[in-house]
Structures are given as C-alpha cells and as structure tokens.
Amino acid sequence: MRKSILVLISISLAFCNHSNAQLFKKKKKTKLLIQSYLPVNDSLYFGKYEVSISDYFAFMDDLKANKRLDLFDNYIIDTLLYNKITIYSNSYKSMSSNILNYPVNNINHESAIEFCKWKTNQYNNNPKRKFNKVIFRLPTEKEWEYAAFGGKSSCEYPWGGPYLRSRDGKLLCNFLRLTSKDITFNTVLNKYEVVLDDLINYIYYDGIANIDSYFPNGYGLYNMSGNVAEMVAEKGLAKGGGYKDPGYDVRIKSQKFYSKKSDDIGFRVLMVVLEK
Hints:
The chain is of the alpha+beta class and about 280 residues long. The protein is about 25% helix and about 15% strand. The strands form 3 sheets. The chain has a 4-stranded antiparallel beta sheet with strand order 1-2-10-3. A 4-stranded mixed beta sheet has the order 8-7-6-9, covered by helices on one side.
C-alpha cells in the first residue's frame, strides 16, 4: 500500500487493518504535534501548522461531551466511511500518531468557523493563558498572503524562491508533479490543459503529509504552499493549493475555489490578540 494515502481512508484502515506497516509500527509512536501560534505582527498570530485531525477531534469530543449532537452531526468529517469516523471518540487515542498529525480535511467552511469559536472560548477561559483576551478566526485572503510571504516583500512561494525543489533536488512542498506529457493544447478551447492518465498513480503525488512536513517560511509557518489548500474567511476560497494541485497553483497568489467538502482542502487558524 502506498506510503501516503488519503487521510480518511487511512483512518478507516487504522481501525481494521493492523497489518498495514505504514500506519502501525512496532516502534515508539511519533508524539502528537502541539499547535502553537507565531507572531506575524504585534497582534496577529498564525497557527504554526494546518489544523490537524487531532486538533479537530478535540473539538468534536467537546461537542459530544456537552451533548451538542446537532452540531456534532453537522461538523463530522464527511466520508463514505462515516461509521468508522463516528466511533472515533473511544478509539482515536490509540491510532497511529502519524495519522492524527495529518491536516483535517473533508469539512465545510461552517465547521472551520465553529472550530475557531470553540478555540476562542477554550483559550479565554484558561486561567493559564498568556494573553487576557483573544479571538481565533479564519484569516482573510489578504492576511493569509501576508503571513505566507514570511516577512518578504514579494515572492512566488513561501520559501522565497521561484523553484519547487531545493538545489539538492528535494521537494519544497507537497504538490501535484507534472511533466510535459501531462499538458496538452486544447484546439477547441484554444488553451493548455492538464490531462492525467491516472491521478491515483504515485508518480503525480504522494497524498497528504504530516503538518510539520517540508520547511517553514520566514515566520516559522509550515505548508503555506501545498499539502492541503487552506480555507480563508471569504467563503468558497482557499489559498496555497494542495497535494492535487500543480506547482503553478500552489503559489502564494494562487486561488482555489470550492463549493463542497474536499479531501485536499483544510484550514489554518489566526489568533488575534484583543487584550494583552
């Protein structure tokens, strides 16, 4: 089985296929990554990582604990393996840590907003909080781009250069890798198009990666390009592109439009400090 597969399929397999060496290893499990928020100016702090499955399950756990089953049903991760997901609350802690460190996906815009509201309430009621009052929310497109630039005035990608590989050939983000044979000119529409023989083929992409994969930008933020596209405050718009998007579409200025849940769209949270 491929090393990296779609997150939700991975979750199901984690329950029913213990022979999968990529999901369950006899070695010590990787520790869950703790989300932290890094400053991009005096009052704006961005999530260091994309919101993970672990982060989102904590939100869902709280809804269930408080008997908000109406919200629980509305914000559940959308998947054909629905029954496997709904029993997560009693078993997710025993999953492979690698899976829980994947970015959450297959949720809608409203789910991300409710997560932010929940996160705001959790923080502001924590007696050990650093700031007196904050609000968590989705960033606007403009705020997201500002953070993605990582302190640079202008660049194509968060790492600052125009290339998708480092000098030693390593990939700098998680994206759909194309060759010239995958691009053809449509004489009817008079434009170039990407035509793939088999999108499942590992040649094109590796699937979703852990939230701390690749390299952070100047602000210390991971995966601002690639992995999963990130929903912003403007409904129907995601930024940064995902693992199914070619290199041109994971640029900082790229826009990805959506109307439904997708396995290559997640989100990142912005923390605004209201009272220090």
